Amino acid sequence: MNYTKLLFSLVFSLMAVVVFGQQRPKPAQTEKVPVDLVNADSLVGGVFNGKKIDKLIGSVVFKQKDGMLYADSVYQYKGAESNLLEAFGNVRITQADTVTITGNHAMYNGNTRTAAIDGNVIMRDPRMTLNTPSLLYNLETKTATYTEGGTIVDPENRLQSRRGSYNTTTKIFDFQQDVNVTTADYNIKAQNMKYNTLTKVVYFQGPTFIKGQQGDLYAEEGTYNTLTKVSNFGRNAYILTKEYRLGGDKLFYDQAKGYGYAEKNVSLRSLKDDVTIRGQVGRYWREKGEAKVYGNRPVMETIMEGDTLYMSADTLYSREAKGARTASMIFAYPNVKIFKSDLQGKADSLSYNRTDSVMHLNMKPVLWNEQSQLVSDTIHIQMRNKAIDRMYMYSNAFIVSEDTLKNYNQVKGRDMTAYFKQGDISKVNVNGNGESIYFALEGDSLVTGMNKSISSDMILRFGENKLKTISFLVQPDASFIPPHELKEAEKTLEGFSWMAELRPTKKEVLARPAPAKPKQEPKKATNTKAAKPKKAAAKKKNGAAVK
């Protein structure tokens, strides 16, 4: 009986050990997949570099999972390195019938499933061909890496770089150092770039130059589709054509349509006459030779007479000449403001003919030159060698000049022509319906009287930014009024208006309007009960209450 109990006790103990042993987790083991020999003409054992090997010769083929290794001869290392192969002559590695790599020599590690191939290496998949002196290919991650320079060719493009990697699953190349891409229309240079062999899209991060027959592009991040020829750029991007340089923090360009769009810190420069326009949004049409900048009061600047002319408006539009009968133009509208050290102005709209060097100011323009104010329904400014040569004032022309004693010398007429020398008014011709008021001074400190005259045509001459003389071409109706007889109403001509407060400063022209604040909706009443009207407080007047 005691023997029977002892037997049962041993049996249950053994069962418990077995059960608990099955429940205890087993340590993870790394699976070693052997590299199987498929074919060889002959096999010779020996020692190579102090290690035991099997030397396989003639039409050698090895297989591991979906990978195949072909070579003229292979050294298979024995012992702990039994999964290490060294292949010589006509080496070829394939994977899943999609990737083929050829070279002169290779080291294959079956444990890590990596192959280091060198000597005239060529890698092919259905999308591209890679040529490089040496290549490391990982059959697990399906990634190829090269560090000695590589050239990739596909049906559309040719790509080169010093270093790079290619993922055969995602079909994306990652290039580094001295990257050069050649397409049918562009040559792209960068230091860092990615390329999708499926979509044919180039991705870049860092300074990138794209040079083409119809214009160049630059950006520090973005994409370029080599099929659709559409670019989306960021950070200091610009388009450079024969006529324009359009840049911005965000840039879109469709080469096929010749259309560009820029946002944020936009700059548009006309290369022919060195005119630059800055704003918030820019558009460019290559075939039309037209560009438009708007948003946040764009500003145009150009050099004139060694000085910078600034002009702002809600919209600035540039158009290049197309043919001998057209002119290069700049249009500004509405609310135009101009600033130059010796000329300021405002108008509703402006057009600048860069071919003929004529500026047209429309809708009651006002100009200021030193101490003079010029007003008419329309003003045309004729430039010569980027300097103001003449100014034509059409309909309701009116010139006011302030003297040292704050008196206003005035001339009005139907039309006027002003002549300039070195940026200052030197002479004004009045044509039709001329009237003038001129204050005579003694020593720039004492008024000796006021000349008032009416003559259809007259000539005004200026010197030292002051009105010096008035000549009448037709016998005038003139009078001289001494100071003690001057009445305030006689000191101005009909239509006189001194608008010094509207004279733009450089700061005003360059200023950007503050963004509009969103309108706040009125708060809804939380108490739905109608409030009881309060009795009006009684007002007292002369001690009596007024109801």
TrEMBL record:
Q: Domain Organic solvent tolerance-like N-terminal, which positions?
A: 38-190
What are the TM regions of this chain, as residue ranges?
A: none
Residues of the region (Disordered) are 507-547
Secretion signal, residue range per the UniProt entry: 1-21
GO cellular-component term (any): cell outer membrane
Gene3D superfamilies in the cross-refs: Lipopolysaccharide (LPS) transport protein A like domain
UniProt feature, compositional bias: Basic residues: 531-547
The answer to whether UniProt assigns keyword Signal to this entry is yes
What InterPro entries is this protein classified in?
A: LptD (IPR050218), OstA-like_N (IPR005653)
Q: Does the keyword RNA-binding apply?
A: no
Q: What keywords does the record list, in alphabetical order?
A: Cell outer membrane, Membrane, Signal
Q: Which PANTHER family match?
A: LPS-ASSEMBLY PROTEIN, LPS-ASSEMBLY PROTEIN LPTD
Q: What is this protein called?
A: OstA-like protein
Species, as recorded:
Pontibacter akesuensis
Show the taxonomic lineage: Bacteria, Pseudomonadati, Bacteroidota, Cytophagia, Cytophagales
